Amino acid sequence: MEQKEINIDKLVAGDERAFIAFIEYHSSALYHYAFNILHQKECAEEVVSDVFLEVWKHRKKLGKIENIKGWLYRILYNKSISFLRKDSVEYTNLSFDEVEGFTFELVPSQEEKLIGEEKLSILNAAIASLPSKSRHVLYLVKIERLSYAEVADLLHISVKTVSNHLTYAMKKLMETLKDEVVLWLFLLPYFQ
């Protein structure tokens, strides 16, 4: 039995240490995703806290969930949209098509240091030039490694729409970065 399963089993049993380890494992990725939707540090932190509160409330069901990461992202996305709806009257009937301004920021890593700030800014500019919806799908599929079906379910769109957004994003990035071979070497692990 691998460590991850043991932690989930302990979490299901109500072990607070397992819950803290679970939070530490997932919080950074969830925070980045929430921040990319909400664009405010405090709001993103609040929504992530709400997600972990939901996890604790429903911990007995965790052992039955096949894809916990996908489940967490669905809760986070729904809570983020609810937060936006609650925060402003104009978001009352918010859908995936109306979520604008999704930003895509790579988490600093060793590879980024090797690329250099100038190359990284070229990469970020290329990603920023993509339409918001395409950036959102690119992030979920290529960085967070969710399946097309999970992304479709999460965003309430069809698998074909996920595929279309991803194809468009990849095509535009290839056009924009055609002379930036180093950037593509960096991106290869993410885009395979």
From TrEMBL:
Answer yes or no on keyword Methyltransferase. no
MF (Gene Ontology): DNA binding; sigma factor activity
Per the database record, which ranges form the RNA polymerase sigma factor 70 region 4 type domain? Answer: 123-173
| GO BP terms, alphabetized | DNA-templated transcription initiation
State the family it belongs to: Belongs to the sigma-70 factor family. ECF subfamily.
Report keywords, A-Z: Sigma factor, Transcription, Transcription regulation
Taking every annotated instance into account, which residue ranges of this chain make up the domain RNA polymerase sigma-70 region? 23-87
Give the matching SUPFAM superfamilies.
Sigma2 domain of RNA polymerase sigma factors, Sigma3 and sigma4 domains of RNA polymerase sigma factors
Q: What is this protein called?
A: RNA polymerase sigma factor
Q: Which domain of life is it from?
A: Bacteria
Is this entry keyworded Transcription regulation?
yes
